[in-house]
Amino acid sequence: MHLSNLFEPFIETGVNMLDVRLKETIHSTVRFKTIITPVFLTYYNLFYPPDPSNDNKRVKVVPANIFINVTAVTLAHLILGDGNFLPSRNLIRIFTNSFIESDVRFLSQVILNNLGLYTEVTHDRNGQFILCIKGENVSRTRELVTEAPFMHPSILYRIGVNPVNNKFNYESILDMI
User: Fold this and answer.
1) Is residue 136 part of a domain?
2) What is the mean pLDDT of the chain?
3) Within 10 Å of residue 131's Cβ, how many Cβ atoms?
4) Which segment, 2-6, 28-32, 114-118, is predicted with the most confidence on average?
5) How far does Cα 58 stand from its chain's mean position?
6) For residue 128, pLDDT beyond 70
7) pLDDT at site 55
């Protein structure tokens, strides 16, 4: 619901809540479609440029200018969309599997430069790489993304935090996104 609240002016359809069974567990999910707007096209072109060596098919990349936009809000949304917490190892993983290794390494370096947060690039499977946040960097990540706060309380489990306050002020982050 957090993203549907943020994107409310751009939502074309209603917000659908569904229960999805994954193995033995039922997970709730929210689905919605956004309108087509030049605002989104700009980001689409940044992250999916045409590849001239492959008949101009679009390939997902980490944009060369990503360093301009990597903030605590960006980190929160990376985790919100593609992260999880592994309690047995006190580890936050960000699943960057759809990027090539050099892009994942570049993103890791940008996170270090912009946020002072070390992320380890780890081989996941089949030539795919993910970002892992370990040790003291887990605590630093929690501080960064919950300070404002940038993550809705319902999703804090992705950084291994149990919410103490289920209220979230969307207006507090509008200037930062």
Assistant:
1) yes
2) 85
3) 24
4) 114-118
5) 21
6) yes
7) 92
For CA atoms 24, 28, 34, 38, the dihedral sign is: negative
Into how many domains does the chain fold? 1
Where is 76: in which H helix or E strand? helix 72-82
Q: At 71, which amino acid appears?
A: T
Bigger pLDDT: 148 or 21?
Answer: 21
**HSE-CB for 172 with a 13 A CA cutoff:** 12
Q: How far is CA 111 from CA 16, 63, 70, 120, 142, in A?
A: 34, 14, 7, 11, 14
Q: Compare 5 and 1 and report the one with higher pLDDT.
A: 5
Long-range contacts of 18-26 (CB under 8 A, 24+ apart): none
Determine, yes or no, domain membership for 24: no
Q: Which domain holds residue 101?
A: 61-162
